[in-house]
Design a protein that fits this description.
The protein is mostly beta strands. It has 5 helices and 18 strands. It is globular. The mean pLDDT is about 95.
């Protein structure tokens, strides 16, 4: 990929440490967008068989987070320390287990999930099998504050500079930044997470409950780890509708039957002035690019 001038040499790398978030149940039954009660697995835990790269629709689960869900303090999710753990952890950062049978094993941060304030991390299968719910994860947090010197109208959040160099992006005419994405979504489909003003944490869900729209835009083909563009969506200082704005993020949890919810998008790039031009690219997926999750080669460790 082309090289971009950045302020990488000025960024600060900080160690943050969390633990495995317990799997949660919120209600005995939850109510779907069309009035059906349902009960199934949801957020948290060590997820053995759902990987970054898997389809977001093909699961008997709701808001499923692939791999490992990490949190600093489950009882104080909105504390400054817990939000710092979320904010500083960037997509592409290296993570390391610091205790137990899996001590020393490394993984990769894949996103933030708002509400529960989880950081999602990919580890290889052998490491997942050794981990337990007392495992601690140290993340080499690096990337917040990253700027693209030649694209002042593009803001960057939650992105490791090393990952930036591997993404399908390039400069184009008119000072635009072209970014490869698997899917382009209109602003009216964005639901839960709208209005949140901390773009360096959390996510925003793509609503998937209108069957004709899902079919037309092929939303049921979205995979965990896909890079997705949202048109007329500005995430510069909060998630809001703005005509002409463009945002690109990465999909971090599975589809949901809850009204206002769907696959979750962690923000990576945004431009209020439309300085981003999304380009459809079926291979624009975090797992493909890094060789992790469903695309990890046998014997390769995180």
């Amino acid at each position: 990929m082309p090289k971009f001038k950045t302020n990488e040499s000025n960024l600060v790398k900080i160690a943050v440490q969390g633990r495995i978030a317990n799997a949660a149940q919120y209600e005995a039954f939850e109510l779907s967008h069309d009035g059906r009660p349902f009960a199934c697995p949801t957020v948290g835990g060590i997820v053995y068989n759902v990987k970054t790269g898997d389809n977001t629709f093909d699961l008997a689960g709701d808001h499923i987070e692939p791999g490992v869900s990490a949190v600093l303090d489950e009882n104080k999710r909105n504390s400054r320390a817990n939000m710092g753990f979320n904010f500083l952890s960037c997509v592409g950062n290296s993570a390391r287990i610091t205790n137990g049978a899996a001590k020393g094993a490394r993984g990769v941060v894949t996103g933030h999930h708002g509400g529960v304030e989880h950081v999602t991390i990919d580890f290889d299968q052998a490491t997942l099998n050794k981990m337990d719910l007392d495992s601690r994860v140290l993340i080499e947090a690096y990337g917040q504050g990253l700027k693209l010197s030649d694209f002042p109208d593009v803001k960057v959040y939650s992105l490791d500079p090393a990952l930036l160099k591997k993404l399908p992006i390039r400069g184009a005419r008119g000072g635009k930044l072209e970014i490869g994405v698997t899917t382009i979504v209109p602003a009216e489909l964005m639901g839960s997470g709208m209005g949140h003003n901390n773009i360096g944490t959390g996510d925003c869900d793509i609503m998937t409950h209108d069957a004709d729209t899902v079919r037309r835009l092929k939303l049921d083909q979205i995979c965990l780890g896909d890079f997705v563009a949202v048109m007329d969506h500005d995430h510069s200082y909060g998630r809001t509708f703005r005509k002409g704005a463009v945002t690109v993020g990465v999909i971090i949890h599975s589809n949901s039957e809850l009204a206002g919810h769907g696959p979750g998008l962690t923000t990576l790039f945004t431009s209020s002035k439309g300085a981003i031009r999304p380009v459809l690219n079926p291979k624009a997926n975090l797992a493909r690019i890094l060789g992790i999750g469903r695309y990890r080669q046998k014997g390769r460790r995180g």
